[in-house]
């Protein structure tokens, strides 16, 4: 891979890259099947990804006709990598084994190692015989929606496909590696004003937020909407507040420190609640929610913006869902995509049905939505949330930082890129967008 990396750094054209041999092995971050029980009896918060994530060489799989080899310059950490590394809610090898039963090509995925990672930016070095529109030398980002385009269920909204999966989580050969195996319909153009690491952190979280708020399958935010965003400086929350601001809405950012509140203010969010300073206790004990705390929360929201939220952007799950349903405006919408504080949610159904509210489930994004979200990044309308960068050899430490919620925005991981700041192909556009806007989260992260 060093020869390929050097050629990319020297600006080699596509035919020259295509002529280079693809090695029979490459460096990757992975978990091992034999380690799946290593954290049994340990509390989730105490499970350490540094003990389960390994970085070493793995064999290069054959390339299917509809796939490409991408030389990965940078990747990022998502929460699904943390889940994989601590084998929660279950080991991911079951996903790989089920995928392997679908076809001869799918059988490659059932190995005793699982190469993780659901984001990547890099350069195509090979394409399969059925790939159209992409060729070696193309600089790309990768989105993580992995679907079988021969299944009829994937041809309306591919997120409803019967066998839809997340690449690098429910499939093998993910992005936290020097080489990735990617379906052609996961490829998107790399925003040419961004560095490799800035381009690598957007696809999963940005696309998720786009679908939740903007796309036709989500809340369909309109101008003037008040939108409550939990974790508003986090991986998806930071993109969500940008979409609200861009769309003429009023974001209410929920954060957990004065520093995070200041970051939102600099981003342009005026209405911010520091939940830790407010001391909300939505649960009075492990089984009982406190409606008086929901009411106090709602009063604080109205004190900031004068009304209840039209939309609640939900992803913490168990700890917040009851409050989210309660504070949402009559006839409003709660849209949810995750449950980082627990999957088994509870809410008072009276406040839901009698006030005609809606609850929408959302999961990543289809190709069209991911492409449109990436286009907005390329136009400089949505900024990357990169706050820190780790080398691939320290991927366990990076995942642990996410697991312990010790970060803002997104954490990037350098793979083939030898350092930060490389990969900008359009410095004029970068200057026009504004260095301070592009690096805002990185400045706070450092």
Secondary structure layout:
Blueprint: H1 2-9, H2 14-19, E1 25-32, H3 49-52, E2 54-59, E3 67-77, H4 79-86, H5 93-100, E4 113-115, E5 120-127, E6 139-142, E7 145-146, E8 165-166, E9 179-183, E10 187-189, H6 196-200, H7 203-213, E11 226-229, H8 237-246, E12 250-255, H9 258-267, E13 271-274, H10 275-278, E14 283-285, E15 288-289, H11 291-305, E16 311-314, H12 321-327, E17 333-336, H13 349-353, E18 358-361, H14 367-378, E19 386-391, H15 395-403, E20 410-414, H16 427-433, H17 435-438, H18 440-445
Parallel strand pairs: 11-12, 11-16, 12-13, 16-17, 17-18, 19-20
Antiparallel strand pairs: 1-2, 1-4, 3-5, 3-9, 3-20, 5-6, 6-10, 7-8, 14-15
Helix pairs in contact: 4-15, 7-8, 7-14, 11-12
What would you say this structure looks like, in words?
The chain is α/β, with parallel strands linked by helices. Helices cover about 30% and strands about 20% of the residues. The protein contains 18 helices and 20 strands. It has helices at about 1-10, 15-20, 50, 80-85, 95-100, 195-200, 205-215, 235-245, 260-265, 275-280, 290-305, 320-325, 350-355, 365-380, 395-405, 425-435, 435-440, 440-445; strands at about 25-30, 55-60, 65-75, 115, 120-125, 140, 145, 165, 180-185, 185-190, 225-230, 250-255, 270-275, 285, 290, 310-315, 335, 360, 385-390, 410-415. Strands 3, 5, 6, 9, 10, 19 and 20 form a seven-stranded mixed β-sheet that branches. Strands 13-12-11-16-17-18 form a six-stranded parallel β-sheet, sandwiched between helices. Strands 2-1-4 form a three-stranded antiparallel β-sheet. Helix 7 (about 205-215) packs across helix 14 (about 365-380) and helix 11 (about 290-305) packs across helix 12 (about 320-325). The radius of gyration is 21 Å and the shape is globular. The mean pLDDT is about 95.
């Amino acid at each position: 891979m060093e020869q390929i990396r050097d050629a990319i750094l020297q600006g080699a054209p596509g035919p020259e890259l295509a002529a280079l041999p693809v090695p029979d092995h490459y460096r990757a971050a992975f978990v091992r099947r034999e380690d799946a029980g290593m954290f049994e009896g340990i509390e989730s918060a105490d499970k350490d990804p540094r003990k389960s994530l390994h970085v070493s060489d793995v064999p290069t799989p054959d390339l299917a006709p509809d796939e490409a080899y991408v030389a990965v310059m940078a990747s990022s950490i998502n929460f699904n990598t943390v889940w994989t590394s601590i084998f929660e809610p279950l080991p991911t090898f079951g996903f790989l084994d089920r995928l392997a039963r679908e076809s001869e090509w799918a059988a490659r995925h059932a190995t005793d190692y699982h190469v993780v990672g659901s984001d990547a930016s890099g350069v195509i070095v090979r394409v399969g015989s059925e790939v159209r529109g992409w060729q070696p030398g193309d600089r790309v980002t990768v989105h993580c929606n992995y679907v079988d385009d021969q299944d009829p269920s994937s041809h309306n909204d591919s997120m409803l496909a019967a066998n839809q999966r997340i690449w690098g989580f429910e499939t093998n050969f993910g992005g936290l590696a020097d080489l990735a195996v990617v379906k052609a319909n996961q490829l998107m153009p790399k925003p040419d004003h961004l560095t490799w690491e800035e381009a690598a952190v957007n696809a999963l979280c940005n696309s998720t937020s786009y679908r939740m708020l903007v796309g036709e399958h989500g809340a369909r935010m309109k101008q003037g909407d008040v939108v409550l965003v939990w974790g508003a400086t986090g991986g998806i929350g930071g993109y969500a507040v940008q979409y609200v601001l861009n769309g003429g809405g009023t974001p209410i950012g929920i954060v957990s420190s004065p520093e995070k509140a200041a970051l939102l203010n600099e981003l342009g969010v005026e209405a911010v609640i520091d939940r830790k300073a407010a001391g909300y206790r939505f649960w009075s004990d492990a089984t009982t929610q406190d409606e008086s705390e929901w009411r106090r929360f709602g009063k604080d929201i109205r004190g900031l913006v004068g009304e209840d939220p039209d939309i609640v952007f939900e992803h913490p799950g168990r700890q917040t869902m009851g409050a989210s349903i309660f504070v949402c405006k009559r006839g409003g919408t709660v849209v949810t995509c995750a449950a980082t504080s627990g999957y088994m949610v509870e809410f008072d159904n009276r406040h839901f049905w009698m006030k005609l509210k809606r609850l929408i489930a959302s999961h990543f994004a289809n190709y069209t939505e991911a492409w449109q979200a990436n286009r907005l990044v390329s136009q400089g309308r949505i900024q990357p949330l990169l706050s820190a960068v780790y080398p691939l050899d320290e991927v366990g430490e990076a995942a642990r930082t996410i697991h312990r919620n010790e970060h803002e925005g997104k954490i990037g991981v350098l793979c083939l890129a030898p350092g930060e700041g490389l990969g900008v192909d359009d410095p004029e556009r970068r200057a026009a967008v504004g260095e301070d806007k592009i690096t805002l989260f990185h400045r706070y992260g450092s």
